[in-house]
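Slide 14.
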Amino acid sequence: MDKVYDSLMNTISVIPKSREVICQDNPIEKSRVIIDNAAIKSAAVAGTLALPPGPLGMLTIIPDLIAIWKIQNQMVVDIAATFDREATLTREQLIYCLFKHSAGQIVRDIAVRTGERIIIKSMSTHLTKAMMRRVGVKVIHRTTGRSLARWMPVIGAVGIGAYAYRDTAEVGKNCIALFANNLTIESS
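Slide 15: predicted structure.
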């Protein structure tokens, strides 16, 4: 649990530089290309790390999560850049994009939708740490349920790769929904 928590904190603490530029023409289409590329990369990483069977496969769970979170983190930043939001990207926006689909009940207090606007609330470091602990518990429960697939070589790897693809695509959808709307950052 501590390794998952530390990995989560490292993921949200570092906002990397984007490799993309502002897309004036159609940022949603450009974002979809970024999402597809990141989802394919996530699936390949997860599938490859899930290939070792049995106990050896269980040792790859944490590196798998870390690698996918790094890919997704970069994807969020790249999508923010296509919408010209990289300069104002916050830790709270990153958390919202990364975990809204999988830990929605936990991160629901970060964002409030008011009509066409989405208001993102800033959080203290203490609140962020508490939220990441709760997200970590949720991740461990989800991962434990899928760990049985690591005992089935190839078939399990394909399933885990497919899950990573879908998970990354969901993060991308969260990004588009957030950055394509009128966004307001609220200080606490």
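Speaker note: The chain has eight helices and three strands.
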